[in-house]
Amino acid sequence: MTSMRCKLLLLIVAVISAQLTLAQQPEKVAVTEPSVTNLASLFKQADTVALVKVVSGDAENYRITVYKAEVLKSFKGAVADETIYFGPHVGERIGWEYILFLHNVTQPLAPKTTSSVSFGTVHYSEVFNEGYSSMMTSYECVFEGKTTVEQCDDGVRVCTDYIVLPKSTPTFPPMTENTSFGCRWVREKVFLSLLGTLGDSKK
Distance (Å, rounded) from C-alpha 13 to C-alpha 19? Predict the structure, then answer.
């Protein structure tokens, strides 16, 4: 009996030791960096380029986060007043406006369940380049000018460390200053004009 107990004890120790060894194995995680691309190339890569208003989002009923948006102005691949669905990056603000560069996904996206609160099965597009092809718009007081009226305007947040703008495009703060995540503000009317020019050149 003593011999059997020793063997059983050794077996238990061996199993626990093996499990602890497996648990300590490092998990390999692939980290990808966004590519550095110019605005014209980003426009060319995208299936859809549009100024949209995010009207709702769903992080519960799909395998990824899905946002529903209304197209306010289209530069490529969509029409004004169209409803589009996009994702998968979290953090987009409901009710806010964004300029999106999107890749179409071939397969429709179905909810995980038959929940009536989901959007149902939808045609879905992806924000690409690690999320940097989604650009928030906001009223900001960061622009050049001597008065508040001149300094405050609608702007687009562009991460210029990854999205290279034409050299003549004023950014705030200027390119000579370091910024959080390499992101700067461009006056919205200037940025929309750039997109309009790119859109006209593709016709």
Answer: 10
- Written as one letter, the residue type at 132 is Y
Task: Assess whether the previous peptide bond of 170 is cis (omega < 30° from 0).
Answer: no
What tens digit of pLDDT does each residue of 44-92 get?
999 999 999 999 999 999 999 999 999 999 999 999 999 999 999 999 9
Of residues 88, 98, 92, the one with CA closest to residue 124: 88
In terms of pTM, does the model score above 0.85? Answer: no
Q: Return the H-helix or E-strand segment holding 120.
A: none
For residue 5 the two structure tokens come to: 């107990």
Residue found by looking up tokens 């014209």 in the block = 40
Alpha-carbon distance of 199 to 79, in angstroms, equals 13
Token look-up 């190339």 returns: 41
Give the domains, in start order, of the chain with CATH numbers. Answer: 37-135 (2.40.50), 140-201 (no CATH)
